[in-house]
Write a structure and sequence with these properties.
Chain lengths: 139, 181
């Protein structure tokens, strides 16, 4: 299967690979995995006092599309509020990377990862949970 | 038409619908059916009969592949109970489990990077133990406890571990190729 140029670009030059200390109070960590393909994704955000995501890191073991999806999300969330970052949808990721239908689950994984990271950060700070559940079932 | 295949895979082979299954019995039942529906037997038959034989052979192979493989067999047993193992949709595995999955992959990466085949052997051995433990667990959950929700989670976990197993295999292969040159 042919990867799009954007997927290849992110795959060859992934942005923001690495880790933050997950014990750090300003860090939110999201760990998710896709059973169908065995991909594992860790996505972390560093949030400043005004609730803005200053920096992000990821580590993904998976196919090119999974790596590109998480790389893209770490770029997109920087400078966003937690709320705005939580509104990123897998369809936007899939569109930006021109993912074929069989790779849509990679974009879902990335959406779930950023949501899990936000939830982790909010939990650490005793903030209220948003009513919406992570979009595990979203097609 | 030679034979009507049962739609249910266990019925097809005349086996009880359980996770624990006798591999040899399955193999025997498969070969017996294959002898009856194999397209080679229909070379002189009508177009319609040949088409049916092709379809049945495909159906039979799919059934055999599904029941022979423990994870596919478990997933099939769950779907038979109306339980979706959510292999495509459930991304929220327990964090500790996902951390372990990261660690497996990091260990494989490190061992490949340093061309350490002994470490890969050890990882493979440890993983083998883990896989056997999980197969036993899913067997108990399905056959003895009827805990289908628990079994669905075990099946999801097994999907990750089998991926790790593939990756160890790939890493070993590329090391062997490297030293063979």
């Amino acid at each position: 299967m042919a990867y799009s140029d954007k997927v290849i670009e992110h795959y060859e030059n992934p942005r923001n690979v690495g880790s933050f200390d997950k014990g750090d109070e300003s860090v939110g960590t999201g760990m998710v995995g896709a059973p169908a393909c065995g991909d594992v994704m860790k996505l972390q955000i560093r949030v400043n006092d005004s609730g803005i995501i200053e920096d992000a890191r990821f580590k993904t073991y998976g196919c090119g599309s999974a790596i590109a999806s998480s790389s893209l999300v770490t770029e997109w969330v920087k400078g966003k509020s937690l709320e705005d970052a939580g509104n990123i949808r897998n369809t936007q990721i899939a569109e930006e990377l021109a993912l074929p239908p069989v790779k849509i689950h990679c974009s879902i994984l990335a959406e779930d990862a950023i949501k899990a990271a936000i939830t982790d950060y909010r939990k650490k700070h005793g903030l209220e949970q948003p009513a919406e559940q992570p979009a595990c079932k979203a097609a | 038409m030679a034979l009507e295949l049962q739609l249910d895979y266990f019925d097809m082979f005349g086996l009880p619908a359980r996770f624990s299954l006798d591999d040899e019995e399955l193999g025997r039942a498969y070969r017996d059916l294959q002898a009856v529906v194999h397209p080679d037997r229909f070379v002189n038959a009508s177009d319609a009969e040949r088409r049916v034989s092709m379809q049945q052979a495909t159906q039979l192979n799919e059934a055999y592949r599904t029941l022979k493989d423990p994870v596919r067999r478990a997933a099939y047993l769950l779907r038979r109970q109306g339980i979706d193992p959510e292999l495509d949709t459930n991304t929220s595995m327990p964090t500790a489990f996902l951390m372990e999955q990261m660690e497996w992959r990091e260990a494989i990466e490190a061992a490949s990077g340093s061309a350490d085949s002994r470490e890969l052997d050890q990882l493979s051995c440890r993983l083998g133990g883990e896989l056997r433990r999980m197969y036993a667990q899913v067997g108990q959950q399905i056959d003895e406890r009827g805990d289908f929700a628990g079994a669905a989670e075990t099946v999801r976990k097994l999907m990750f571990l089998e991926k790790v197993s593939d990756q160890i295999g790939d890493a070993m292969e590329s090391l062997e190729e490297g030293t063979g040159d």
